Amino acid sequence: MDADKQPLRIGLVGFGCVGQGFYDILQQQPNLGLRVTRIAVKNPTKPRTLPAERFSYHADELLADPELDLLVEVIDDPAEAFRLVSTALRQGRRVVTANKAMLARHLPELVQLQATFGGTLLYEAAVCGSIPVIRTLDAYFSHEPLRSVSGIFNGSSNYVLTRMSEEGSDYAPALAEAQALGFAETDPALDMGAFDPRSKAVILAAHAYGVFLNTEEVLNLGIEGIGAADIAYAAALGQKIKVVAALERLTNGRVTALVTPQLVGPESPLYAVEREFNGVVLEAEYAGTQFLQGRGAGGHPTGSAVLADVLAVQRGTHYGYAKQDTAPEAQLLEELEVEVYLRHADEGVLREVLTWLELPADAIQHDGYGPYATGVVALQQLFAWRKELRQNGVFVARQGAVRLTAPVVQEAASAWA
Ligand SMILES: NC(=O)c1ccc[n+]([C@@H]2O[C@H](COP(=O)([O-])OP(=O)(O)OC[C@H]3O[C@@H](n4cnc5c(N)ncnc54)[C@H](OP(=O)(O)O)[C@@H]3O)[C@@H](O)[C@H]2O)c1
Asked: Is 76 in the pocket of ligand 1 (CB under 6 A)?
């Protein structure tokens, strides 16, 4: 740093896992020219690793402080995070956030606020922790068409799947172990239900395709219903079950998105992504296939992404969203189908599920673990029955690419005839 150059003054909102990780990295790198001058937290009685006078208990005080050059927002409350970040952007401020749930819900508005008021918002830490996937898509692949962006975006569920696979164990003990080791939240619903990777897929869609998706309209199926039988079924085929978030360009040029358990073979780089790691596969039109792997969570890995964003903001970097003007339409459910594998220990329940999904009764087969079924299902049916599937503990995994249903293909074919 130049001797006469003032350090960048950072206001840090949130001093939990990510906030402390970021702060700790800065302490170990004192020559970066960055200084956390104010920290806001919520709970005044919580014991802290820093003296009490370092903390404010009102984040609004940081918003009102003209001395701060940049805000880092790393709190665990999406609604409050949106209030803070949008207020800061209305002031034309520079902001770094890690809050994927907030971003997935409000991205169009946040992009608009930057355009209107001249502020900057970067959020690399929000998707796959330490993996620089947003900047890669936004800057490096800003003008290259992408066939697909898919990956393992949730370390907690991947940890559970890995342990089940290694131990041949059931879901409950693997989840309990993940929770005991701090790889899964006490309330695992967001991670195991694939809500968290769905938020990340929605964020990536804006950078990979210029498409702003409504999170609620993206199909997400989780692993709450998984058992040792499903892991064994995949293993017998030489495959593993992974929760894969996928953005795919369809043959009609539109883009689809979904997050589901999927059978993955050794030909995919995702097959070897284990435990709490995340991985992203990019299929680019001209560059071909690329694969990024790294730690998707944790104080230091996520703090490292926050630091990279802070330094990027300092250099004047902002996201380009270059594909926004030429964005294809999204086609999330209509006229799409996918091959699935379904299992429930109770054959009666499985039979009912087949009627929901409009699969024939003879789709049921048996192996050493009991009944299961396979078949091609409309995405609309999976979406319509997703809550019942979850509530009834039915495990569903996809076994292939999402494709346009036959009538549409025929229509397109006859149009060319
Ligand atoms: N943990 C990860 O590995 C990871 C990875 C990627 C992204 N993220 C995202 O990063 C964000 C932070 O996650 P985290 O794991 O660090 O959460 P955390 O450990 O639960 O910490 C949350 C922090 O936010 C503070 N806070 C909550 N509400 C506040 C408010 N209204 N004003 C000021 N401070 C407030 C809390 O204050 P108190 O200390 O007073 O309770 C706490 O310091 C979340 O959006 C999360 O989704 C986390």
From this structure: yes
Q: Answer yes or no: is the C-beta of 350 below 6 A from any ligand 1 atom.
A: no
Question: What are the pLDDT tens digits along the chain (417 aa)?
Answer: 555 578 999 999 999 999 999 999 999 999 999 999 999 999 999 999 999 999 999 999 999 999 999 999 999 999 999 999 999 999 999 999 999 999 999 999 999 999 999 999 999 999 999 999 999 999 999 999 999 999 999 999 999 999 999 998 899 999 999 999 988 888 899 999 999 999 999 999 999 999 999 999 999 999 999 999 999 999 999 999 999 999 999 999 999 999 999 999 999 999 999 999 999 999 999 999 999 999 999 999 999 999 999 999 999 999 999 999 999 999 999 999 999 999 999 999 999 999 999 999 999 999 999 999 999 999 999 999 999 999 999 999 999 999 999 765 545 545 444
Shortest-distance Cα residue to atom 19 of ligand 1: 16
How many angstroms separate the CA atoms of 367 and 365, rounded? 7
Provide CB contacts within 8 A for 91, sequence distance 6+: 63, 117, 119
Residue 302 amino acid letter: T
Residue among 25, 46, 74 to mutate when testing ligand 1 (max atoms within 8 A of CB):
74
Q: Which of 100, 200, 242, 323 is catalytic?
A: 200
Instruction: Judge contact between 331 and 252, C-beta under 8 A.
Output: yes
Which stretches of 23-170 are assigned E, i.e. beta strand?
34-40, 55-56, 70-73, 94-97, 120-122, 146-152
Task: Find how far residue 159's CA is from the centre of its chain.
Answer: 15
Report yes or no on whether pTM surpasses 0.90. yes
> Which residue segments constitute the domains of the chain, with CATH numbers given?
8-122 (3.40.50.720), 134-300+327-404 (3.30.360.10)
Three-class DSSP category at 415: helix
Does 242 qualify as catalytic in the annotation? no
How many other C-beta atoms are found inside a 10 Å radius of the C-beta of residue 4? 5
